[in-house]
Amino acid sequence: MEKIHPLKSKPALFIGLLLACLFISNIAFAEIAVIVHPDNSASLDKKAIKKIFMGKKKKYDNGNVILPMNASKGAASRDSFNKLAIGRTTAQVNAYWSKLVFTGKGTMPRELTSDAEIIATVSANKDAISYVDASAVTDAVKVIATY
Question: What is the pTM for the complete model shown?
Fold first, then answer.
């Protein structure tokens, strides 16, 4: 019986750790779908979506007021959206919004408690925009971007 030398198994250990990290990162950041009402014809790229959720874009091109809606604090979809779409952690986004609200320069997006509530609210309002776990999307809403 051949004995495995500990130094010879390092590449295999490294590859195993790398694959484990890739698997874990996919679990931590599920695919997020940005959704609007099916009749909303607005064309929004990822840069515009970021501006909307940072309070820097408040109207669609047709002049209607945009109604951004967040998932509730602590929701995995909110953490993933903030990281992937905004490029900041949830704590950083909350700090940003706290400053805007405190100085009277902005109103934080409304929070909804679940993907089902978000879909129901967005499907009932042509100017609403939000995000959900991509696996929760139904025909009641239109996906305009995924992360």
Answer: 0.79
